[in-house]
Amino acid sequence: MGSRNNKILAAIVVLCVLGAGAYIAYAALSPSETTTDARPKARAVLAGSDVMVRAVEPSNPRLNGRVFIVDHGSVKQLPGDLSCERVYYAAGRGICMGIAPSGVDYTAEIFDAKMETEHQIALTGLPSRARVSSDGRYGAMTVFVTGDSYLSSPTAFSTRTTILDMASGKQVGQLEQFKVTKDGKPFDAIDFNFWGVTFDPRDSNRFYATLGTAGVHYLVEGNVREKSMRTLREGVECPSLSPDGKQIAYKSRIGKEDRWHLRVLDVATLEDHAVAEERSIDDQVEWLDDDTLAYSDEKNVYTVPADGSGEPELLVRDATSPARLDGPDLPQ
Amino acid sequence: MYQVEASKALLKPKLWARRSARLNVPRNVVMLGMVSMLTDVSSEMVATILPLYLVFSLGASPLALGAIDGTYRGAAALVQVISGFAADRWRRPKQVAEAGYGISAVGKVALVAAGNTIGGIGAIVAFDRIGKGIRTAPRDALISLSSSKAGLATAFGVHRAMDSAGAMLGPLIAFGILLAAPARFDAVFVVSTFFAVLGVAVLVLTVQGRPKRAPRVDDGTPPPSLRAALGLVRDRRVVVLLIAAAVLSLTSVSDAMLYVGLQRKIDFEPAVFPLLYVITAVAFMGLAIPVGQLADRVGRVPVLLCGYALLFVVYGALLMSSLGYGLLVLCLLGLGGYFAATEGVFAALAGAILPEELQASGLGMLTTVISIGNLVSSVAFGALWLTLGLKGAVLVFAVALALAIAAAVPLLLRSQRTPVHG
Predict the structure, then answer these.
(1) Residues on chain B touching A298 (C-beta within 8 angstroms)
(2) What's the pTM value of the predicted model, to 2 decimals?
(3) CATH topology assigned to domain A41-325
(4) Could you report the per-residue pLDDT of B281-332, keeping only the tens digit for each?
(5) ipTM of predicted complex
(6) How far B28 CA sits from the closest chain A CA (Å)?
(7) A6: which chain B residues are within 8 Å (Cβ-Cβ)?
(8) Are the beta carbons of B5 and A103 separated by less than 8 Å?
(9) What separation in angstroms does the CA of B101 have from each of B92, B160, B320, B363, B396?
C-alpha cells in the first residue's frame, strides 16, 4: 500500500469531483428547447361540451403539462402557469397534480375558475388519478408511492388515495383508513391499495373506487362521511360514473398483464359490455355525456360511444387527462 | 432490506464523522465503510429518481416499476452464500468484493450509455442487485478479519452507520442535482457513476486484502473445501447461532410493514410518510456506533436481545387503540435502536465464532438465513393481517417474538461459549 496508492486515489478523487462538477455545470447551463408553436390540436369538428386537457410535449418543458380547453374544435391555452401531470375540474374548482416549482418534488394545486392556485398540497408519489365531485365539494387524488412497495409480491406497487375538501384544501381522509366490508364482514389486509375514485354526480358523499389486494381488483362503493366502503364485484379498475349516475366505465385487466380493455357496467344490474376501442388503455375514463366516453392513450385523447357501437375517434392530439366542462363556473 | 427511499424530507443529515476520531476502529473498517457509503450514495441516487425518470422521460406506466422492483429482489437471493464460499475458497475476499462493487459500477456506466429503454433499465437494476449480493459476504468477512475479536460489534457499527449515511445522502444529492439542472436525469446518472467508481477506487487502493486475522496462505494448508464450508452447520456454536437468527428473523416484521400499520393507526397527512423512514434511519445512523461499543463492553448477546425487545415494544404500540404523534416518534426511535442493536451485532456474533478461513462462507449463510426469515415473516404477517386483522396479526407476532427471544437466550449464550474441543 503506502503513499503511491494514496497519490493515485487523490488523483482519482480530483478527477471524479471535476468530472461530476463539470457535467452538472454543463447540464445546468445548457439551454432547454423553447419551441412555442407546438400545442394540442383538436379535431376540426367536435360536438358536445367543452373539454379540459393537459398538453403532452415531453421535449418542451414550457408546454408540457399546460392546461388547454377544447371548445367546439378550437383549442386555447388557459391562463396561469399551472403544469400538471393530471388535471380535473368541476363546479368552479380543479385539481392539478404535477411537479412542484422546485422541479424535484410532487405537488397538487387546487385552482379556481380563474386558474389561480388556492391551495397547495405536497404529494408523496407520482401523480396518477384526480377527480372532483360534480358539486365541487370533494376532490380525490391517487398517487403511486415508491417507498413502501418493495416488500410484498414481485409485481407489487403501492398507491395512496386521499379525499379532499375542495374549499379548504384539507384532507378529509385516506381511503387506506376507511373501514372496508366484503359480504357484510370486515375486510382488511396489508397489501390494500386504493385508486381511481369517482364521485356520484347526484350525491357527492357517495363514491366508487378500486381496491386491489392479493391480485384481485374489487369495485368498491364508499361513503365519505361514514368513512366506509364495501366491495361490489371483481375485475374493475378506475371506475368512472356517467353524468346520470347509471353506468360505470372502467378498465378491465387482460389476464394478469398490465394491459386493459375499456368496458361499461350498468350500476343497477352489474352487467357489462365492451366498447369499440380494441387497444389497451391505461386511463380513468371521462364521460362527455351519457353516451360518449373520452380517454387518452397517453399521447392523444379519443372518444368512443359507450354502448359498444361505432369506433374510436381522435378528439385532441398531444393531450391527456380529459375533463368534461359543463355546469356553472367554467374556467376562463 | 433497510432502505431510505424518500429522505428528501431530511434537510440536515446528521453526519457520523465527528465521532469516529475518538473511536479506536481499524483503518480497514473505516475504509470499507467509506466504500459502502460511496456505493450507497451512487445506488440510492439512482433508486430515488428512477420512478420520476421512467414516468416523465420514458413515458412508462408506474406499473412497470413493480416489475423492475421484482427483478431487484429476485436477483440477489442466493448469490450471497456462493460468493461467500468463493471468497474463502480462493482466499481472496477483497477480490470477490471488488468484483461485486465493480459489477454495480459497470451497471451505472451502462445506465448512462443505454438507460433509455425500460428493458435496459430493468437489466441494469438487476445487475446492481447481483453486485450487492456478491459483495456482502466477503466485505463483512474483511470487516471481521480486520478487527480484534473484542471490537467486532463496534467495527460493524461503524460500517453500518457509514453505510446508512450513504443511503441518506444519495437522495439528497440526486435532488440537489435536479434542482440545479431540472429534468437532467443524465446528470444524476453521470454523477452516480463517479460515486460508484470512487467507491471501487477506495476499495482497490486503500483496503488491505489480507488483514491481521486473515488466515495465512503460505503455510501449506489447502484452501477450505466446499465440504468444510458445509461442515460449518455441524459446528454446534454456528448452528445454534443460525437457529437463533432464523427464529428471530421469522418473528420480525419488516419496518415498511410497521409503517403501514402505524399509518392505519394515526390519520397523519400523506406528506408525513417519508419522514417515518427518515427518523428511523437517522436514529439507526446515530445509534449504530455507540450501541456497537456498548455491545463490545457489556456483551453482544444482551444488546442484541434488547434490540429485539425494542421491536417487541413497537408491536405493543401497534396494539394500542390510539397513538399520538409523540408515541409515533418514540416508536420510530425504537425501531432505529432495534436496527442499531441487531444489524451489525448479529454479524459480530458470527464473526467472533467463525473460523478465520470460513468467515465469508459463515457470514454469507447468516445473511441468507436472516433475509429468507424476513421474507417468510413478511408473507406470514400479510396473510395474518388478512385473516385476523391488523391487531390479531400483531398479537400473534408479539407472542411469537416473545417466545423467539426466550428461545434465543440459551441458543445465543451457547453460541458464544468458548469451544470445548473434542
Answers:
(1) 59
(2) 0.81
(3) Neuraminidase (2.120.10)
(4) 999 999 999 999 999 999 999 999 999 999 999 999 999 877 888 899 999 9
(5) 0.79
(6) 12
(7) 205-206
(8) no
(9) 14, 17, 44, 18, 40
